[in-house]
Design brief:
Radius of gyration: 22 Å
Number of strands: 0
Distance between the termini: 39 Å
Largest sheet: none
Strand content: under 5%
Helix content: over 70%
Structural class: mainly alpha
Length: 358
């Protein structure tokens, strides 16, 4: 929702420049903060199961299924954008307002759809050839997931693993001063550290809750910290907000109500479809409203307010596609790992016994 609010109310249809600048300092409108929090949560969710169970097979299934889990919904959404482009639902660049006129200037094709969805989006992303611009984050998501799974395989059962994770986080965060992308991968490692702490520790004293409340307040300042250097302080604010969300009871309760859970279920579909909605419905609504005589600020606000429910509705319609991708990727991972284990048992009985033990 924060990414949707950011793109709609700040980047594409702002009330005016001053209002957009003020909104950018608020956490619900900070799209970058939301994506970075997603990286922390990915590190947490990918590792928490293994931290609790030490189940090697489950980790292997997660590793195998991660790519299709991401690629299948992306392929479906990209195909929809392709159809919208060739049908005229997304107008040509010359007919779009800024900044939408800068994207989707290429000639779409089925081959390009497959190349973008299955390879480019993960390994060679470019805004000039992207069908869905927010998918810049998928490269970091896939490689960050690989980093997490690799660390769990190598040191996930060692007693000093938290120390290893902490040192690696500091190294990546330090390198972010020179290589900003290293800081993004440090967020995944921070999620691993939080997962380890979550299993081992529970707040019991008033001082604990006071500390967590302080982390929450610091996290709410993350969008403001984004405008300052070094970026490690900004990332620390994101990590602090996630930590407070994991442990503070009242914040957990807020994030576990039915509405929050529903928005969580459609979050990836919403991330995929809201861009195409801005390029199609929102531009159509703008074209309808402009002749009515409203000033530009009022027109932009009306278009933005109309875009939000349409985007949520389209995400809800896309949810079954996402659910099929989840089931398919899990089934794929389970079958592949089971067949690999069967093969190892047959070819190398001793190694097969090790696999079974894992």
């Amino acid at each position: 929702m924060a990414v949707l609010f950011c793109h709609t109310f700040i980047e594409v249809f702002p009330y005016d420049i001053d209002v957009a600048k003020r909104l950018a300092f608020l956490l619900p409108f900070s799209g970058a903060s939301a994506v970075y929090a997603f990286f922390v949560i990915s590190g947490f969710s990918l590792s928490i199961g293994y931290v609790r169970t030490q189940d090697g097979r489950d980790l292997a299934r997660t590793a195998v299924s991660r790519y299709p889990r991401l690629a299948l919904p992306i392929l479906a959404a990209t195909t929809l954008v392709y159809l919208m482009m060739i049908s005229g639902a997304i107008p040509d660049a010359a007919k779009r307002v800024a900044p939408l006129h800068l994207a989707l200037q290429f000639e779409p094709s089925v081959t390009h759809v497959l190349q973008f969805s299955l390879f480019d989006v993960f390994f060679r992303f470019s805004f000039e050839t992207a069908y869905i611009l927010p998918l810049w984050s998928m490269e970091f998501e896939l490689l960050g997931s690989a980093l997490i799974i690799g660390l769990l395989v190598i040191v996930g059962r060692r007693k000093m693993r938290v120390l290893v994770y902490g040192v690696l986080y500091l190294i990546l965060a330090g390198f972010s001063v020179f290589y900003p992308t290293a800081g993004l991968y440090s967020l995944f490692v921070a999620g691993m550290v939080l997962a380890e702490l979550y299993v081992r520790w529970r707040p019991r004293r008033p001082l604990h809750y006071l500390l967590l409340a302080g982390l929450f307040c610091f996290g709410c300042l993350a969008p403001y910290l984004a405008s300052h250097r070094p970026g490690i302080i900004y990332h620390a604010g994101i990590i602090a907000f996630c930590a407070a969300s994991f442990w503070l009871p009242w914040l957990r309760s807020l994030l576990e109500v039915r509405l929050s859970r529903y928005l969580g279920r459609i979050s990836f579909p919403l991330y995929l479809v809201h861009g195409p909605i801005l390029f199609s419905f929102s531009l159509w609504a703008l074209k309808v409203l402009q002749p009515l005589g409203f000033d530009s600020s009022t027109t932009n606000t009306i278009v933005a307010l109309c875009t939000i429910p349409i985007a949520i509705g389209c995400a809800a319609a896309f949810e079954p596609v996402n659910n099929v991708a989840i089931r398919t990727s899990r089934r794929f991972g389970a079958v592949l790992v089971a067949q690999a284990a069967k093969y190892l048992r047959r070819r190398e009985p001793a190694l097969g016994a090790v696999v079974d033990a894992a």
